Amino acid sequence: MTRLGFLIARTLRDEDALQRLSVAQDSLLGDLSGKHVALVGNARALEASGHGAAIDAADMVIRINRAPMPSPHSHGTRTDWLALAVRLGSADRDRIAPRRVLWMSHKRKRLDWQTATSPGFYLHPLGDYTALKETLGAPPTTGAIMIDLLSRSDAARIDLYGFDFFASLSLSGSRTAGNVPHDFGKEAEWVAKQRKLDKRIRHIH
């Protein structure tokens, strides 16, 4: 697809055309088979932790959006996959240096050409987003969408870091829970249920 074709498909919300830029979900999940995955959220509380070495020791490190990493001691340094729902500036892209970018947002008009043509690019299906939104009764966070996706994989272990459901707010911005469209109480309940159903998922604050 040319850049012009991409812009037209994005403007017209031509989902079939945009999906042709993406690796298949089965292929993406296949890359996680047997792996120890660290999914790193952006809770401010993680900054006070010493989880950095454990995060970097995982087979696959997945970070979210602008992926603040204030210290290797708390956050580690590696980013294998970056799960995005926001446009990323060149400085953040260079700093994070992900091997693969996943576009998790249903807002296709935010998707940029550089992301859509990056190696191994993945576009999360709208149907999956809508199903999770209906389950939660509110728009899901990027973290919740990733947990839902990871649970479908054959990963050996899924560790969640930096997820306190906005109790300590976010390192990536100054907004409060009242300024975002998510229901963090419902997400916390949903994650707790997922952990009971799937013993691979470990919640490490």
From TrEMBL:
Its main location: membrane. It is found in: Endomembrane system; Membrane. InterPro entries: Glyco_trans_29, GT29-like_sf. GO terms for cellular component: endomembrane system; membrane. Keywords: Glycoprotein, Glycosyltransferase, Membrane, Transferase, Transmembrane, Transmembrane helix. It holds the Pfam family Glyco_transf_29. It is a single-pass membrane protein. Gene3D superfamilies: Glycosyl transferase family 29. One of its GO terms (molecular function) is sialyltransferase activity. This is Glycosyltransferase family 29 protein.
